[in-house]
């Protein structure tokens, strides 16, 4: 009798808690750790041996390591556009690498990933690199209220680098204002003509603490010359060596503040984009110069976020994703010894090309997912998946409808993300620099003919552009060494037709 009672009480408790459990399992906290210019081979769980990334690897150990995951593009702005909107960036004009004073690239009426989380009752934040333009068509008013910005695009809170660490203005924007701006020292920014107040790298190389290798010879801020000209705003200038700390601190604050309700954090740390200026704590840690040291910094900051989730007992019900916006590059414009100190490390793993490239190195990236309450540990998934799919997948997880026409290229890959299925996308389009696109289907990759230059000489980077069609068998040749286009003309025809068809479809 007593036993029966216990069963009944237990059953009642279970039933009472069932909706809660179900609800909990559909409203995890979500943290996207979106690193910058980190290649597939840059993390030790993907095979790096010259560098160790134990904290990043923890995510793989707690969940799934994807071997076949992609960004849509091999540069930042288009990849971030796709991540947040679920639309292939080449469908929209103006999604190339954005200048530091570009107007907002995402329209206010587009549905973003932030919107989906907000609709589901989450607190949302973007903290780190934005690089999707700010303000109206003519760009932001740096000395006033900067709108539209992340707050108009689904984020309750934002603390951002407007563009890139190598582009002016070198200030953070917190919500709609430049942080720490002294109104008596207003900011002006120009990407066309020099503003004469501050010296440039071109005219005053003797003032530089890090010499440029190509481009990056305009206004000098903190001893580093940048892309673009600026003056004023001195009290608001970031300190490059504290940038990762500043971003991580704000992320920690946001998580702490929202620990008792569902939150979505898009943590877009600037590492390991140029200029690579890790905090002095990390200097010399990798033996590979600033690029390797910035990787150690990235890993350490990832650890800080994971440790915080542990200490707040949020790990179990937080879905964490680690990825990168585009593939790796060694010399991206500063003389920081990335080439000289590489020590046989392979940033893109076995893949050809990197940042700016249509070859695999450009878009085939680290992608790790954990959510301990739901996803079993230590899995490897070979499913074809793209960052563009996250918004539709989250919409299903959160049981939110996407408005019609929103996120047109995003496919619901929730089961793949949660390790319940290996059935990834049927096909995926990837974009490099230069015209033309590439499509991946099964083991085949077709790169359409392109007039773009085949080699970025000063960066020593192959773009994958070729006036002839290219076809690679990724199962047997992930390094894209043998062009099989003339051997399998039918496959070339099929994939170029499919590429065309997806391009036409809206
Ligand atoms: C390029 C910059 C490069 C980097 C890139 C954007 C030059 C010569 N090169 O134009 O250094 O800033 O833009 O990188 O200016 S991304 O990761 O944000 O796409
Ligand atoms: Ca990038």
Report what the structure shows.
- The protein is of the alpha/beta class.
- It folds into three domains: 28-187 and 233-423, 3-Layer(aba) Sandwich (Alkaline Phosphatase, subunit A); 188-231, no CATH class; 428-504, Arylsulfatase, C-terminal domain.
- The chain has ten helices and 22 strands.
- The protein has helices at residues 2-26, 54-62, 76-85, 113-119, 243-257, 289-311, 360-363, 390-397, 414-417, 489-504; strands spanning 29-35, 64-66, 69-70, 123-129, 157-161, 173-174, 177-178, 188-190, 220-221, 224-225, 229-231, 263-268, 318-324, 368-370, 379-381, 385-386, 427-431, 437-441, 444-447, 455-456, 461-462, 470-473.
- A hairpin with a 2-residue loop joins strand 6 (173-174) and strand 7.
- Helix 5 (243-257) packs parallel to helix 6 (289-311).
- The relative contact order is 0.17.
- Residues 8-23 have low confidence and may be disordered.
- It binds 2-acetamido-2-deoxy-6-O-sulfo-beta-D-galactopyranose (NG6) and calcium ion.
- Calcium ion binds at residues 36-37, 76, 273, 325-326.
């Amino acid at each position: 009798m007593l036993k029966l009672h216990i069963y009944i009480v237990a059953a009642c408790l279970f039933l009472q808690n069932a909706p809660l459990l179900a609800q909990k399992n559909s409203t995890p906290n979500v943290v996207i750790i979106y690193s910058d210019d980190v290649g597939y081979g840059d993390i030790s769980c993907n095979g790096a041996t010259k560098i160790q990334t134990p904290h990043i690897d923890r995510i793989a150990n707690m969940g799934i390591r994807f071997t076949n995951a992609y960004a849509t593009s091999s540069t930042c702005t288009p990849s971030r556009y796709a991540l947040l909107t679920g639309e292939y960036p080449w469908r929209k004009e103006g999604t190339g690498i954005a200048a530091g004073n570009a107007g907002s690239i995402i329209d206010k009426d587009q549905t973003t990933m932030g919107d989906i989380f907000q609709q589901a009752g989450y607190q949302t934040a973007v903290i780190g690199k934005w690089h999707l333009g700010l303000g109206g068509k003519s760009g932001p008013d740096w000395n006033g209220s900067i709108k539209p910005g992340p707050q108009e695009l689904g984020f309750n809170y934002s603390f951002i680098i407007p563009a890139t660490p190598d582009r002016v203005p070198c200030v953070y924007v917190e919500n709609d204002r430049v942080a720490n701006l002294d109104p008596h020292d207003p900011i002006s920014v120009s990407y066309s003509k020099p503003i004469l107040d501050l010296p440039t790298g071109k005219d005053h190389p003797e003032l530089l603490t890090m010499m440029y290798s190509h481009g990056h010879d305009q206004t000098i801020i903190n001893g580093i010359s940048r892309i673009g000209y600026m003056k004023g705003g001195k009290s608001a200038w970031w300190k490059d060596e504290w940038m990762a700390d500043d971003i991580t601190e704000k992320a920690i604050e946001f998580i702490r503040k929202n620990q008792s309700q569902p939150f979505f954090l898009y943590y877009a740390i600037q590492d390991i984009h140029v200029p690579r200026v890790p905090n002095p704590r990390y200097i010399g840690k990798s033996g590979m110069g600033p690029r390797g040291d910035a990787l150690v910094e990235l890993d350490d900051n990832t650890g800080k976020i994971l440790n915080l989730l542990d200490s707040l007992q949020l790990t179990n019900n937080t879905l964490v994703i680690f990825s990168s916006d585009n593939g790796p590059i060694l010399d991206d414009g500063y003389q920081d010894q990335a080439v000289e100190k590489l020590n046989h490390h392979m940033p893109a793993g076995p893949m050809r090309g990197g940042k700016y490239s249509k070859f695999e190195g450009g878009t085939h990236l680290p992608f790790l997912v954990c959510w301990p309450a739901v996803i079993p540990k230590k899995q490897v998934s070979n499913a074809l998946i793209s960052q563009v799919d996250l918004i539709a997948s989250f919409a299903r997880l959160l049981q939110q409808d996407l408005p019609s026409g929103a996120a047109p290229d995003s496919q619901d890959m929730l089961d793949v993300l949660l390790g319940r299925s290996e059935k990834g996308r049927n096909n995926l389009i990837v974009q490099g620099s230069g015209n033309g696109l590439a499509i991946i289907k099964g083991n085949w990759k077709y790169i359409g003919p392109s007039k773009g230059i085949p080699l970025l000489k000063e960066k020593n980077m192959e773009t994958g552009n070729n006036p002839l069609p290219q076809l690679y068998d990724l199962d047997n040749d992930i390094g894209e060494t043998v062009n099989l286009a003339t051997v399998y003309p039918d496959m070339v025809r099929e994939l170029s037709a499919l590429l065309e068809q997806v391009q036409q479809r809206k």
